[in-house]
Each structure stands twice: as C-alpha cells, then as structure tokens.
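Run log, item B.
One chain of 425 residues. Sequence copied directly from the ordering sheet:
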Amino acid sequence: MSLKRATGQTGLQKKRLSRAVATAIAGFALASASGAALANAELIKLSQDDRQWVMQGKDYDHSHYSGLKQINRSNVKNLKAAWTFSTGVLHGHEGGPLVVNGIMYIHTPFPNITYAIDLDNPNKILWEHKPKQDASVRAVACCDVVNRGLAYGDGKIFKTQLDGHIVALDAKTGKELWKMENSDPKVGSTLTQAPMVVEDMVIVGSSGAELGVRGYVTAYRIKDGKQVWRAYATGPDEDILLADDFNMANPHYGQKGLGTSTWEGDAWKIGGGTNWGWYAYDPELKLMYYGSGNPAPWNETMRPGDNKWTMAIWGRDVKTGKAKFAFQKTPHDEWDYAGVNWIGLSDQVVDGKKQKLLTHPDRNGIVYTLNRENGNLVRADKIDPSVNVFKGYDMKKGVPIRDPEYSTRMDHLAKGICPSAMGYH
C-alpha cells in the first residue's frame, strides 16, 4: 500500500489529516468563485469531496469526518511514512493543513509562516510566505505562540498573525493581496485563531482575555479586506449586535441590556469573552455558531454578577452579525473554562420531530445540545461523573447547579476541583 502521509515534528500526522491527504494526489479542478453565493457554493462542493480538506473542521458542520475508505481497521497497521516535512518551528502547531485541489497549505505558529506543497511532488515547496512581525508580540500571547490554522475561499488563503493582522494570499502564488489589523498587541490583544470563509466574507475572532481584552468577532470582505461588521461579547446592546428578536424563544436566558448590567460598573470594558476557537455554519439558516471565552479578570471576586455574554454559545446572522440567540454555559465563570471549543451541527429526531441541532462538549464538563434555529436547550449532560463543580443541571432555567464546596471564592480552600482550569474537553 502506497499512501502519502504527512508526519514529523509539526504534528501533521493527526488522524483527520492523513485521511484527507491519502487521496488528495488527484487534483479536483474547480473555477474560483467571484460572488457571495458562488463563494459559498465553491466551499460546500469542495468540502463534500473527500479528496479535499478545505476547512479546519472539514465542512461547515464542523464534522471533522472523511468518508474515505482506503484506510480501514484491517489495513491501518500497514501505514508507513511516505514523506515528512518539518517547519522548523518548535512551538504549538494547533489546527491542521488544508488540502485544496492537490495542494497542501501548511501553517506554523509564530512567526506564522505558510507553505504550499504539491502533493504530487512533496519534495518541492511551491511557495512560502514569511511575514515580518515585531518579536515583542511573543511576550503578549497567553499559553504559547500558537496558530490554529488557515482558511480557503475564492482562490485565496487566509491566515492570522500573532501581531493581530489577518492576511489574504493568492493560493497559486502566495502573493499578499491584502492585510488588515484586527487586534492590537499593545493592549494585550493577539490573533491565534483559524479564520472561516462564509459567503463573501472571512470571519475571525480575537485573543487576550487573560489580559483584560474585550472579546469580539469581525467579518471582512474576502475581496479587499473591508470590515463588514464587528460584534463584541460584552457591553451595550448596539456593540454586541443583538437582533430585535434576540433570545425571543428563550427569554429566561436573558435579553437586552445584560452586557453591561451583569457587570459591576464599567468592568465589562475589560471583561474578556474573546473567541479564539472554531466556527460552524448553517448555509440554510445563514447562521454561524461559536463560543465566547472566559471573563476577565480571573479573580472572580473582582467581577460580581453573571458576566454576560462571556462563556456563551452564539448564533449570529452572517450577513449582519446580529445575534439571534446566546446561551451562557457558565454564568460567572470561576475556573477559566474558556468556552471556545468545538461546536458540531447535525439533524436529529428529538421527541419524534426532526430538529436542527448543535452539540458542544464544554470545558466545564457538560455536553450541551441546542436547537440551532432558536437556541432551545435540548440536553445538558455531564461528560463524566467525576465532574464535581456542578451537582446537576436545571433544565428549566438553563443553568448548572453549583456545588459551593468547589468554588474558587476568597477565603475558601477548595481541593480536588474537577474539571481543572485546563477544562474537561
């Protein structure tokens, strides 16, 4: 069995990538799209072809699933490395390469180098992009100078840089087409996230909640980088971009004015809620889904209240950025359970009726299932009985039931807290 497989120091040997790379040798010709609808159609079609891996999550459902069958349980033991590629960068490589029409696009953490490799001739680098960045930004980044991957759309590769810029490159040549400043490291805001292309926009979040950065998500036009909208996690309703029918189906989640009233004074201005994880998208509903992260500062006694809308699952209209719903998973987070991880979409039968669902295993130790049309909470289950910060879950109120024994409040010594600050997921 002769299979092309990426391995080595960079962590490219991840299972989901080897699936995609295994048959990506054969090119799949498709003309670049030029309009909003076509940009969507191109990515949807490419993501359904298992010779491609055009998004970090494989597709808009964020399934991470390949239908390839050449590698299976009976022959996986025969896999060998066909070639290796080392980026030479020793920090965390989070996220995987993209494979588009037989070309593999590889990213690195800071200094955020991008490589293009023809899988028919992997010993040759087609092009590389090495941006110039101020090395001082490394000291600003929390938890390593990682990068979580690239995005593709309309013949362009989109990348984020630790210095806060989002960049568009020509996928064929690596030529820089445009560059926009999304985050300012001088105030502690960096950029480590993988962007996502939706319609005629590329969407990206922000990092730096640990340093009191107020989180936001931004949409840029893929054509020229012009900002379309920006929505914050905390603050006045007009900054958060709440739709007129925000949480209409679930008013008990909270509706207007809570981005400021659930904070003491102006604490929301340094409230965190950055989103540096991953996105999912429903092309039929035109809604995107993601999680906002931990509130700031870490010391919970300094920010009384629910601290909305940090630690929330969001459903936003991609055209306007307006939020249809937000569901807060951990009101007044005490443990740094940054809620930015995987959200997957599926259609399932619940109580005899087919529903559009989203599922999110959160770092707080609870797996959430919501109706992604309106935010209705369908299920909330502990990942494992060892989760002890919550005694259970109140489905009517949509909140976890805390066990005060495992609180991090001042003048209280808590031991054996599970999950730890690293989170369960």
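Observations after the first pass:
- The CA atoms of residues 366 and 382 lie 4 Å apart.
- Confidence is low (pLDDT under 50) at residues 1-37.
Flagged for discussion on Thursday.
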